[in-house]
């Protein structure tokens, strides 16, 4: 599952760059506002953990780094903190049926 999510993430970032500076290798030098500038590695939050991925880079025609809003969201540490802010009444044990079996032949009991 993680592989598909990484592909979608990369496509989102490449699409955002293409919209801002034009497609890679396009012959539009007079209209270009920036240039594709390879890739770099960085951490993103995926599946509740940090994963290192490559992201596309670009620079303006003046040489300044172009930042992507999507990269800011994917690499935000706030995504790691989200589960800890979950309401305790919405935790897995409280959502589990109180009459579920422990699977060891014992009498069903409440988990809460």
How does this structure look, described?
This protein is of the alpha+beta class. It has one domain (about 1-80). Helices cover about 30% and strands about 20% of the residues. It has four helices and two strands. It has helices at about 1-20, 70-75, 80, 90-95, and strands at about 35-45, 50-60. The protein has a two-stranded antiparallel ribbon with strand order 1-2. The two termini are about 30 Å apart.
Summarize the main sheet.
2 strands, antiparallel
Total of DSSP H or I helical runs spanning 4+ residues: 4
Strand order of the largest sheet: 1-2
Structural domains: how many? 1
Distance between the termini: 31 Å
Number of strands: 2
List the helices and strands and how they pair.
Elements (H helix, E strand, L loop, with lengths): L1 H20 L12 E13 L2 E12 L8 H6 L3 H4 L10 H4 L17
Antiparallel strand pairs: 1-2
How would you sum up this structure in a few lines?
With 112 residues, this protein is of the alpha+beta class. The protein has four helices and two strands; from the N terminus they run αββααα. The chain has helices at residues 2-21, 69-74, 78-81, 92-95, and strands at residues 34-46, 49-60.
């Amino acid at each position: 599952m993680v592989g598909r999510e990484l592909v979608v993430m990369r496509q989102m970032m490449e699409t955002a760059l293409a919209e801002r500076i034009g497609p890679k290798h396009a012959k539009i030098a007079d209209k270009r506002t920036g240039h594709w500038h390879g890739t770099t590695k960085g951490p993103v939050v995926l599946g509740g953990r940090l994963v290192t991925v490559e992201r596309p880079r670009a620079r303006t025609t003046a040489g300044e780094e172009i930042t992507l809003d999507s990269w800011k969201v994917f690499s935000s540490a706030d995504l790691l903190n989200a589960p800890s802010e979950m309401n305790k009444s919405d935790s897995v044990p409280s959502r589990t049926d109180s009459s579920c079996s422990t699977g060891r032949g014992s009498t069903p009991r409440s988990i809460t």
